[in-house]
Amino acid sequence: MSQPGIQISDLSVEFAGGDADPVTAVSGVSQEIDAHRFVSIVGPSGCGKSTLLNVVAGLQQPTAGSIMIDGKPVTGPDRRIGLVFQEDSTLPWKTTTDNVAFGMRILGVAKRDQQRRAQEMIDLVGLQGFEQSYPAMLSGGMRQRVALARTLAQQPSVLLMDEPFAALDQQTRILLGAEVRRIWRQTKQTVLFVTHDLSEAILMSQQVWVMSYRPGRIIDVIDVDLPDDRDASVVSTPAFNELQNRIWSTLQQEAMRGFVAESTAA
Amino acid sequence: MESTVAAPVKTESPHTPTPVPGRRRKRPSTGLLSAVCTFGLLVLGCLFWHLGSALAWWSPATIPPLTEVTPALVEILGSGEFWGDAGRTGFEIAIAFVGGGAFGLLVGIGFWKAPTIGRVFEPYLVSFYAVPLVLFYPVMIVIVGINQWSVIILASIMAGIPMALNTWVGLSGLPPVYLKLARSLGCNPRQTMFEVALPAAAPFIVAGLRLAVVYALIGAVAMEFVTASAGLGFRIRYLYESFDTVEMFVYVLVVLAMSLALTFLLSVAERALLRGRAGR
């Protein structure tokens, strides 16, 4: 039997647009993710992917609908949820260890556990030897590892990642993507991963949701039936290509629609 | 989930390099170098001063010779009057720095918390910055009387303004992701302020502190010049009016030394407060 991980019911988000018409960022989204599954959302830019993620994280109130995590509703920021941001969120005045322990400190984890767990997570993300380094001495990819370790150290049951590799170069993205997959296969959190990169979505996840341009709806759900221990070489297989073509055929129209809407608005 | 830590994939990528040796090891030598340079410059300056006086490049009424100033310095440093003046000025600077700095910090935080108020008052605060506040000394004297509090109040205002502006700029420029992080972790307002916002704005706040100490010093000495009946600023004016150039120079040197010492102390504090950040 599969347990519920994230349940999104009839979710809509509207923004009051000042004197303009209200903008509907997310409209009528109902989806479920079983616990321990890895799901990606792809969609054209401006489609409300990040808004959806913010609502699931409890950072933003939906206009309608509800979110349940492990069968219990989300009403605000929640310690069952761990967030990884697109921007560099390491705190420049803290060493790697202190950065990784920061979330636990705020959540009131006992001091001794903080040290032990921080070290475990630093080992897990491969930052041994950099415990006392400050972010200024680390590369962008390493800082994102620190942020990931901080989030994992909070031991959330759900991991929400908002384009976590978008600010990194191509090689770092591929390497870090493989790392995230390896870590997920160990820790088995329920993951919702937002990206605009098609192959990244297929490579990382078990299921891909395609989101439409405004108002954001989930217009296609594709199961990725690639081997669980896949690596980057899977990109050249026919199965991968087929998936990519299928997602792209849906996404293409939406991306075009978004492109036209954005350029006429500007 | 904690026991399942497998050996991480070893990659030869640049993203898991070996630890770089800390920059810290270089610091003592640069510190030593700068100390040697400072001392060297000081010796050169004294030499130039002595030479200039000896060769009569300037008249002793303009700049008295080092050979006269040095014994006067020793004598004055031993006098109770000097320590009374220095103590009073030091007290004024300290109060203006601490009081003005704290007040500026609070104002900066307030402006950040209430952006509308910040936008309303910012232009006045900025233009107030440019006003020579010494002009207000008659008002101050009427309000608090001829005592050191008129000096302290004006010096505090001078110290508080850069502090307020810097704090505000630093807080307004916070990367939004820090606040998002704080919110996602469920930080309470106190944690958000002290664990995230203020440390993140620290480079600006520390720069504000450096300005505050300089302005406190300028404010205190300049105000003593015009209003006070004691203090280093007052003594310099008094000696200058009684044509005692030698003693006046002694006091000028003392004020110079004081400002250098304060700047040095602040730079030490800055290094400690901003440890680990880019460029430090």
From TrEMBL, chain A:
Entry's Gene Ontology molecular function annotations: ATP binding; ATP hydrolysis activity
Protein name: NitT/TauT family transport system ATP-binding protein
UniProt entry tagged with the keyword Plastid: no
Signal peptide: none
SMART domains: AAA (SM00382)
SUPFAM superfamilies noted in UniProt: P-loop containing nucleoside triphosphate hydrolases
Keyword line: ATP-binding, Nucleotide-binding, Transport
Every ABC transporter domain range: 6-238
The keyword Nucleus appears for this protein: no
Domain of life of the native organism: Bacteria
Organism: Tamaricihabitans halophyticus
PANTHER family per the UniProt record, alphabetical: ALIPHATIC SULFONATES IMPORT ATP-BINDING PROTEIN SSUB, TAURINE IMPORT ATP-BINDING PROTEIN-RELATED
TrEMBL record, chain B:
Region (Disordered): 1-28
Transmembrane regions listed in the UniProt entry: 32-51, 93-112, 124-146, 152-179, 200-228, 248-269
Subcellular localization: Cell membrane
Keywords noted in UniProt: Cell membrane, Membrane, Transmembrane, Transmembrane helix, Transport
Pfam family, one: BPD_transp_1
GO biological process: transmembrane transport
Topological type in the membrane: Multi-pass membrane protein
Statement: the UniProt record of this protein carries the keyword Signal: no
Coiled-coil region: none
Residues in ABC transmembrane type-1 domain copies: 86-266
GO cellular component: plasma membrane
Family under the similarity heading: Belongs to the binding-protein-dependent transport system permease family.
Protein name: NitT/TauT family transport system permease protein
Organism from which the protein derives: Tamaricihabitans halophyticus
